[in-house]
From TrEMBL:
It comes from Leptobrachium leishanense. PANTHER family: REVERSE TRANSCRIPTASE DOMAIN-CONTAINING PROTEIN. Residues 112-134 are annotated as: Disordered. This is Reverse transcriptase domain-containing protein. Residues 185-459 form the Reverse transcriptase domain.
Length: 528
């Protein structure tokens, strides 16, 4: 039929006859119809076949919306020069990824020693366990190792050792006992093999110019065996801290029965209570620079010791954070390995828990305000009847936080750390200058904003959630349009699946928080 269409077009071009043109158009329309039907059949068959496999399902949907893009570039701009050889590109990436943290640490050299803890000195606000019982490792049974090996996900990429998760999974019955011996030997001796502390890093393009290293995110791939070891340690360490009730209730990150939604509920509820009491609420939203990547290992080990980790067990954690390295893979080329001397390991199992321990005592310096954290996303807030009282308390609290940050060798991005003033519309309208004057140790003043995206939700001074609903609507309408334009390729069942998995999660995220918004705002979502 397609050859007939082309021949009819050639015939019309040579004769110019309208009858020939009508014949061509009729055949062309039939071809278009057949193409749409073939596309619809292809996508429907594939989508229906993978409707219970979210990974493959969304891969097909992505191909409908846009062709796949390659995340690794053929060239990079480095120091105003273009590098193209894969090895040079890989080295450029690795130098940048490792250098981000070391550059920040180098800036500390200009700070006064009085603001830094001396070697061996405990950081301030040391928190100790309620029960003096020391933590030590228990031997891991073979049955637990067998379960961990069998639960490996096939999709996991292999680390530097090139041992795939699939191999460990299918050979679990045969290797569980020797693996258990290796892991228990590591826990007993406090030693971790060097290879298990080496990461293979894959750069993933975020957005913007794909020739700039700053527009890439490093994805660290560790050996699967190291993750088996870490899971064993994580389970024991988590259980210990839960038994000790050691973790602050002001942390919602990386904890069971906690989420960004629980963090949003806590913060927004406190602000709403302040409004109902006729108060103003002032909040400082902290922006840490590379918080996970700049954790000081000495301070981390001291905090682990203070939390009840015994000396012999602490030796294992010292081995865990020391002698780590990473290299970048581009095509078939790998960069030179570089040492990683700070931070919790990216892509690790223990990293998030260790960071939680590191930042656990931050709320202790804010006695006159409330602190809530989700990982490193931290907000400090308090409610007062008038602006002068509010500013005085927030200034005192922020000064204490700056000292804590300096003593713990973290880095605050004061350009992105902002304040926000909350209250009822009449209360805010009475203020001549509705902003908070909170100063930094460098004599600058934090910027006061009137809208802010916090944990995926846009906040406004009255908690009307109007900016959030507006931005959510603007995000969803184009997706609905794309779904409508491709409706001929999708069956009703597939369209329903897309709506349920692509659109509804965005609407349902935080809905318990913004459900109290005025109906005039919510109507934009209910009529969508």
């Amino acid at each position: 039929m397609y050859q007939l269409r082309d021949s009819l077009w050639s015939k019309f071009k040579s004769t110019g006859s309208m009858n020939d043109h009508c014949e061509y158009r009729k055949c062309r329309n039939e071809c278009t119809k057949e193409t749409k039907m073939a596309n619809a059949q292809y996508f429907n068959e594939n989508l229906n076949h993978n409707i219970s496999n979210p990974r493959n399902f969304w891969k097909i949907i992505s191909n409908i919306q846009a062709p796949p893009s390659h995340s690794q570039p053929a060239a990079l701009k480095v120091n105003n020069q273009t590098v193209q050889h894969p090895l040079d590109v890989a080295n450029a990436f690795n130098n940048y990824f490792v250098g981000c943290a070391t550059t920040l640490i180098a800036k500390l050299g200009n700070d006064t020693q009085s603001e830094r803890p001396h070697a061996g000195q405990d950081p301030p606000t040391v928190q100790r366990p309620r029960n003096p019982e020391k933590f030590s490792f228990r031997p891991v049974p073979v049955s637990a190792i067998t379960k961990l090996l069998r639960n490996q996900k096939m999709k996991y990429q292999s680390g530097p050792d090139q041992i795939p998760a699939m191999l460990l999974k299918i050979s679990a019955p045969a290797i569980a006992k020797p693996v258990a011996t290796l892991i228990n030997e590591s826990l007993a001796t406090g030693y971790i093999p060097i290879l298990w502390k080496t990461a293979r890093v894959v750069p993933i393009h975020k957005s913007g110019d794909n020739t700039l290293v700053s527009n890439y995110r490093p994805i660290s791939l560790l050996p699967v065996m190291s993750k088996i070891l870490e899971k064993c340690v994580y389970t024991q360490l988590r259980d210990y801290y839960q038994y000790q009730n050691y973790l602050t209730p002001d942390q919602s990150g990386f904890r069971p029965n906690h989420s960004t939604t629980t963090a949003l509920l806590n913060v927004c509820n406190d602000i709403q209570v302040g409004m109902e009491q006729g108060n103003l609420t002032g909040a400082i939203f902290l922006d840490f620079a590379k918080a996970f990547d700049t954790v000081d290992h000495g301070i981390l080990l001291q905090k682990l010791k203070n939390s009840g980790i015994g000396d012999s067990t602490l030796t294992w954690f010292q081995s865990y954070v020391s002698d780590r390295s990473q290299f970048v893979s581009i095509s078939d080329s790998t960069s030179l390995p570089l040492p990683v001397t700070c931070g919790v390991p990216q892509g690790s199992i223990l990293g998030p828990l260790l960071f939680t321990i590191f930042i656990n005592d931050l709320p202790n310096v804010c006695k006159a305000s409330t602190v809530h954290m989700y990982a490193d996303d931290t907000v400090i807030y308090t409610s007062k009847p008038n602006l002068p009282q509010l500013e005085a308390v927030l200034q005192e609290q922020f000064t204490g936080v700056e000292k804590w940050i300096a003593n713990n060798k973290l880095f605050l991005n004061t350009d992105k750390t902002v304040t926000m003033l909350f209250g009822t519309a009449p209360k805010l309208h009475k203020l001549q200058t509705p902003h908070l004057g909170v100063g930094t140790k460098s004599n600058s003043t934090l910027t006061t904003v009137t809208s802010l995206k916090y944990l995926g939700m846009w906040l406004d001074p009255n908690l009307s959630f109007s900016p959030h609903i507006e931005k959510l609507s603007s995000k969803l309408y184009p997706k609905l349009g794309a779904l409508y334009r491709n409706k001929s390729c999708l069956s009703p069942a597939v369209r329903k699946q897309i709506v349920q998995q692509m659109l509804m999660p965005a609407i349902e995220y935080g809905d318990v928080v913004y459900a109290a918004a005025p109906q005039t705002h919510l109507q934009k979502l209910t009529t969508m």
